[in-house]
Specification:
Length: 182
């Protein structure tokens, strides 16, 4: 359930020095956890908002665009094209990228856990906690893989782009269906 989030986090911290990664992952996941808890607290109300999936998909598309630009600038700096070197990503930029992506993608995760847990709050909190732990562990692994094999970042980019397109597609159908009923 947190695989797409782990890819985002791994890609966000891959360009940072190894000594900063753990701290950035911690704070990014902490921000994601706060968002997930807030979403879980209002999950049933969020289900009623028409177009939320579409908005999340558009937000994630923006994250994908930023990733694409970053991947292209790294390619040009490695091959010597484009004149200068790309400015390195700052820890703050990585944390913002993690949190913005998590805002757009966590809603479906939280709603899935809330739907599975139903009225069992303990199950809800355990499910959310487990997804956050798995996300943090997987993102560290993904960042190490991206350091060794930069081409894998393009696969991650395509996954994020697919998730954004899927959210936009589903959200568009939701909005059109609601408009037809009105």
């Amino acid at each position: 359930m947190s695989g797409d989030n782990a890819i985002i986090i791994g890609m966000a911290v891959a360009g940072l020095p190894a000594e900063h990664r753990t701290r950035i992952i911690f704070w990014g996941v902490a921000g994601a956890t706060v968002l997930r808890l807030a979403f879980a607290g209002i999950a049933t109300e969020l289900l009623q908002i028409i177009g939320l999936t579409l908005a999340g998909g558009l937000l994630l598309l923006w994250v994908a665009w930023r990733m694409y630009r970053e991947l292209r600038s790294k390619k040009h700096s490695v091959t010597g094209e484009g004149g200068g070197h790309a400015a390195p990503k700052t820890p703050r930029q990585a944390m913002i990228q993690i949190i913005v992506a998590d805002i757009s993608m966590s809603l479906d995760n939280v709603l899935a856990v809330a739907g599975a847990a139903r009225d069992h709050k303990v199950v809800l909190w355990i499910g959310l906690g487990l997804s956050v732990v798995l996300m943090a562990v997987a993102s560290n692994l993904i960042a190490r893989i991206l350091d060794r094999h930069r081409w894998v970042a393009w696969i991650g980019f395509l996954i994020v782009l697919y998730v954004a397109a899927d959210m936009i597609w589903e959200g568009s159908h939701e909005v059109v269906g609601a408009a037809r009923k009105a």
